[in-house]
Amino acid sequence: MLSEMYGLSDTEILRKIGRYLRRERLNRNITQEELQNITGVHKKTISDAENGKNITLINMISIMRGLKLLDRIDFMMEDEQISPVMLAKLKGKAPERATGRKGGKG
Questions:
Q1: What is the pLDDT along the chain (106 residues), one digit of tens a residue?
Q2: Are 49 and 55 in contact (CB under 8 A)?
Q3: CA 33, CA 51: separation in Å to the nearest integer?
Q4: What's the number of CA atoms in the CB half-sphere (13 Å) around residue 39?
Q5: Are the C-beta atoms of residues 60 and 71 closer than 8 Å to each other?
Q6: Contact yes or no for 11/33 (Cβ under 8 A)
Q7: In this predicted structure, what is the pLDDT of residue 106?
Q8: pTM of the model
Q9: Cα angle value 36/39/44 (rounded, 5°)
Q10: How far is CA 82 from the centre of its chain?
Q11: Which domains, and CATH codes, for the chain?
């Protein structure tokens, strides 16, 4: 399934995420208006998200928080993991920005 995602357009992915959010909201028997009251995100924005429209990341996080779905993105909150080789090259400092060169070579 993960490899299938790369074959989808960004718009198709937004639609899938929207359907997922709608399904989770309905499974919890929460109306869009109730979710608005829980999250502070306007009902129109919730509807836009559920219909696969582009919304801000902060609103997406608020909606996911309101639906108790933040655990679905836990993996993004893990501490930075830098390989020992890269750390040695950087003399113990974590990279702050990309060089734009593949493999870190000039």
A1: 567 889 999 999 999 999 999 999 999 999 999 999 999 999 999 999 999 999 999 999 999 999 999 999 988 877 666 677 776 777 656 667 777 776 554 4
A2: yes
A3: 16
A4: 26
A5: no
A6: no
A7: 46
A8: 0.72
A9: 35
A10: 22
A11: 7-77 (1.10.260.40)
Output the CA angle 69-80-62, nearest 5 degrees. 25
The residue type found at 86 is M
What number of residues does the chain have? Answer: 106
Q: How many helices (H) and strands (E) does the chain have?
A: 6, 0
Please name the residue that has the structure tokens 């399904």. Answer: 23
Distance between CA atoms of 82 and 93, rounded to whole angstroms? 10
The helix, strand and coil proportions of the chain, stated in percent and rounded to the nearest 5, come to 60, 0, 40
